[in-house]
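Suppose you are handed only two things: the residues of a chain and a line of SMILES describing fe (ii) ion. What would the bound structure be? This form records exactly that question and the answer produced for it, so the two can be stored side by side and reused later without any lookup.

QUESTION INPUTS
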Amino acid sequence: MYSIKEFGEVDSLRVTVLMEDYAGYESDYWGSHGIALLLDVKAGNTSKRILMDVGQSFEALLHNMELADVEPASIEMIFLSHCHYDHTLALADVLGKINKEIPVVGHPEVFRKNFALDPVLKDIGSGSKNTPERLETLGAQLAFIKEPFPLMEGVLSTGEVERVTDFEGKGIGTYNLEGGKLVPDSLVDDMSIIVNLKGKGLFVVTGCSHAGIVNILEHSKKITGINKIFGVIGGLHLVKADDEVIAKTMDRLERLNPSVLIPGHCTGQKAQYRLWERFGDRYRAMHSGSVFEF
Ligand SMILES: [Fe+2]
Ligand SMILES: [Fe+2]
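ANSWER OUTPUT
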């Protein structure tokens, strides 16, 4: 296993929400079910522009990138949080627009088919346009890694997340195809990005948190040896969670005591409202076009 002894610190982080399910009030940005978060990271003399997920609608992503004044060619790395189409479908089109070789990082299983059966059989994975062979011809330097690994100084992939809580990480009722059989899936490919903000602590960027947000944060502490969770942005996938799971999640989050909580996408309206009530000023709303600087 790759060993993470000292993974460094980041001086500043700017997160631009290029895609989210909703656009804010009176916004010219477009909302589209999915997520795409642009991370501008500075660590000493190094700066990198990393795109976490690409959403499903290339048209909406391009529209939002133009509004946010983000040149496609300025993107230096793409990180895929997991297989689902609402995070990956636009990938080939985005790479075509970036039009140069860049690393595309994800779990080794990220391009598998992932079938939902309800209400009808449907592959909700990255889609037939995004085969590894095709992506390579479009300039993707594919890096499939399931262990924790550094993306740059102060920025780490969680790798596969250890599932320790009893109320999270059991999958969303989808299936993988193995030897002609449909096998229940727990989305082992769910990975997040950890940014170690100087003087603040860990800032964790999630796609859907299918591994469970508490599991992700506990895993982040464990692999870095840093106990302060400064903040979280991304989907928390509580959209179909019952009251008990939402309450347990909030209690555990409260104990982790983040200074900033920016839930979006698949967090769901009920959980969003309760998090807002519980975390008050520490809660921030995210929409397409939101920018957060740390
Ligand atoms: Fe998902
Ligand atoms: Fe999602």
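WHAT STANDS OUT: The radius of gyration is 18 Å. The pocket of fe (ii) ion (ligand 1) is lined by residues 82, 84, 208, 210 (CB under 6 Å).
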